[in-house]
Amino acid sequence: MTLPAQLLSSSLDEETARAEVYGLLAALYYAPPSAELLDNLRVAVTEAPAAGALLEAPWGELVKAARNLSHEAIAREYDVLFGGVGKPEVYLFGSHYLSGFLNEKPLAALRTDLDALGLARDDAMSETEDHLAYLCEVMRYLIAGEDVEVANLTRQREFFARHLQPWLSMLCDAVVAHPKSDFYRSAAGFTQVFFSVEAQAFDMLV
Questions:
Q1: What global pTM score does this model have?
Q2: What InterPro entries would the database entry show (predicted)?
């Protein structure tokens, strides 16, 4: 997986970089990061080639957290925050933040939009489609997909505005505020800044 430090280089294709960040976020939030992913994070470059890059500081914090914590500690943290039996400490589902409940109207609206895009949840995925990891994978597809009727900036802006932007900050705030959050506090900080950059870029298209 290409790591977001390379986002900071003007030589990297911007759309490829964005797709890779969404892929990284999907991996971090769907399950505890694999040993391979953590190894890649730990050796990632953190200094931006150009001064003033917005993602440099939060990216550096994420890399630092990966270096300071063991794979086992990060896996335990993921389970404490997002796993467990019954109610998790922090929800990763958009419907929870948009309606206060799971499997409500926001999920139905999302499924309608996914159907219009020709997308459907993989039967192997037990989580509902409003899980953050699933939504990040959809965004990655809308950026990197080959069907220009679907994978284009207009679709990206619409999907982002409807299904991510309204609640992502609430999730990140919950992760940052949790007393047992360490690695994922850094991950949430990076996520927050990245989505802020995305929102600003989409606003410029209007």
A1: 0.90
A2: DMSO/NO3_reduct_chaperone, TorD-like_sf, TorD/DmsD_chaperones
